[in-house]
Every structure is written in structure tokens, then in C-alpha cells.
Amino acid sequence: MSEIVCATEPSLSPEDFRRILVQSGLGATRPIENPRRLQQMLAGASILTTARSSDGELLGVARGVTDGAWIAYLAELAVAGHAQGRGVGRQLLQSVRARLGDSVMLVLASVPDAVGFYERCGMLDMPHVFRFPRESP
């Protein structure tokens, strides 16, 4: 794989976002058939970091929200299936953490298949996390 370049990319298109969600497997749990909602998800993000190959191919996206001082929540760490296991996700996490600084805690909710990845990255499990489920899709 060529060099991986991570950068803040606030102009990421809903089409590219949808493509990486599908390629990563997260499309099964995201509103990929609703372009308006995908655009809202992008517009509302205060964290939007992409990983691209040196030739510009989109390999991954980290999207989330933060107050910039205390906490950040990563809603997606999506890496294209063909790029998984090659350091893309780890580089996205490092890029987001570098941008946030060491005084901001980064949290996320993992899909079961990715728990081992986050543990290998040094993230700690948070057993007492709560949520209100969506009432509409």
C-alpha cells in the first residue's frame, strides 16, 4: 500500500462518505440510502478526518464531535475493507488524537468485531456507558 495521508477534510462529499461506510461494513448500521441525512451527519461533525492513499484514493474516515476542551466522541472510524489491517485506522486515530491534544478524552462505541482493534490501540473499555436509542430510523 502506498503512503497514507490523514487530513481534516470538511468538504468530504456525502457520496464519498457513503462509499466508505459501505466499503467498511458500517453501511449496515448507517442511513446510507438517505443522502440528506448523510449530509447532515457531515455538516454536524466537528471532527472529520480522512485517510487517503498518495494517489488520492479514500481509504478511511473518522467522524465525530468535540467541545475541544474535555471530551470528543467518535461516531465512525470507517476503513475500506481492502485497507483494513494496514494501519489506516490506527493512523486516523493518531491524527484525531493529535488534533484534539492530550487534555481531551476520546470515546467511541465499537462494533463487536472491532473491539480487539481498539484494545490493541491502547483504548480502555468503558463498561458503564448508557444511551437512549433512536425512536425513528
Major sheet summary line: 5 strands, mixed
Number of domains in the coordinates?
1
CATH topology: Aminopeptidase
**Mean pLDDT figure:** 95
**How far from one another are the termini?**
37 Å
Backbone shape? globular
Show unreliable segments: none
**What is the CATH homologous superfamily assignment?**
Gcn5-related N-acetyltransferase (GNAT)
* Estimated structural class: alpha+beta
Cα-based radius of gyration, to the nearest Å: 14 Å
Helix content: 25-40%
Quick recap of the structure?
The chain is α+β, with helices and mostly antiparallel strands and 137 residues long. The chain has helices spanning 14-24, 35-43, 88-100, 115-120; strands at 4-8, 47-53, 58-66, 71-79, 105-108. It has a single domain, classed as Gcn5-related N-acetyltransferase (GNAT) (Aminopeptidase, 3-Layer(aba) Sandwich), CATH 3.40.630.
